[in-house]
Amino acid sequence: MQYILQIPANTGINDIIGNGATTAQSIAESWENQWLDLLQKNPGDNIYGSLTNLGIFFAVGTLLVFLIQWLKDVLEGEYSRPISSMIWPFVVVILLNNTGNGSILSSLTLGVRNYINSVNQQVVTTADTDKIYQQALNMSVAEDVAGSLLRPCQSLNGEQQSQCFTKATEKINNLWQEYRNSYGNKTWIERLENKVNQISYGTGNVSETAFNALLGSTVQTSIKNFLVSLQYAFQNLIEATMLLIAALGPLAVGSSLLPVAGKPIFAWLTGFISLGIAKISFNIIAVLTASVIVNGPAQDPNADPDLMWFMIFLGILAPVLSLLTAAAGGFAVFNGIANTANWVKARV
């Protein structure tokens, strides 16, 4: 009886290559329409338009408080302070002015977001000229694919097992060819191909221990997939959070006339820039870590690196580290903005 190899539905070769090749640019592009819909298309009828109207309401309310404080300073003879403070009402009016295609603030917000994305993509492109990040990710993905195709053959014997291994190897060879088309004839591809051939064309049944030593277990595969999903989720979370902060911009601008030391617009701008720093930091960390693998163990034909640490770093540690870097960078940005504002205030 001829054995028909059953291929799991979620192990398509093209899907695996595509998942490994997902970059920060593709994630940013998938959110592009959301940004345009929120900030530029039908600004009077969407959420941003409503928040802009609410921001104007806040501005009118806080303007009364501002005028009371301003008159108090004038009566007390502090003329320099009232004159320098008069810039804020003009800033608020200009930013919240709706020109029909969205407010000035929405255009500036979208421009800052596009600039952050262009810098991020330039950093990734410069640091990842040889698709190092994709290679490191696909080194682990390839083991999972090969394991999912070969694992059903373990329970068979004799001719059925041989036929199963032959059909599985034919499908896996397509994966090696796709990798060579994308990255060239790399040492790590040859090493993985030899692993599969060792199982497929070896003599006798393959023990579960030997199989897992070469291509990993189902539990390990599930954990890797979860960690890969975590890092994609983190990058999408950054985009969603940036969009949320962008939507709250009118409220921050509208409440900036309050007579307080820290203007809400500074905190809003700092949060927006901090998320941009987090995005850039994550991609730099991911590329540098991938370089350690691709330029190290991947070049050794006799090495058998355990890439679980890379998945853990990518899915958990890199997001945490990038957020800490963003927090430190955001604090520095906030201090810089505040000091600049104080310098201008002292000289106007």
In this structure, how is the largest beta sheet organized? none
Coarse structural class: mainly alpha
Query: Termini distance?
Result: 91 Å
According to DSSP, the number of beta strands is 0
Cα shape: elongated
Number of helices: 15
- Radius of gyration, Cα only, in angstroms? 28 Å
Task: Name the poorly predicted regions.
Answer: 1-22, 343-348
- H-E string: HHHHHHHHHHHHHHH
How large a portion of the residues is in β-strands, by DSSP E?
Answer: under 5%
Roughly what is the average pLDDT, rounded to an integer?
75
Estimated helix fraction: over 70%
Structure characterization notes:
There is one protein chain. The protein is mostly helical. 76% of the residues lie in helices and 0% in strands. It contains 15 helices and no strands. The N terminus and C terminus are likely disordered.
Which keywords apply here?
elongated; disordered C terminus; mainly alpha; 76% helix; 348 residues; 15 helices; disordered N terminus
In a few lines, what is going on in this structure?
The chain is mainly alpha-helical. It is 76% helix and 0% strand.
Topology:
Layout: H1 13-20, H2 24-30, H3 32-39, H4 47-75, H5 80-85, H6 87-96, H7 104-127, H8 132-150, H9 158-183, H10 187-200, H11 208-215, H12 218-247, H13 249-254, H14 264-294, H15 308-347
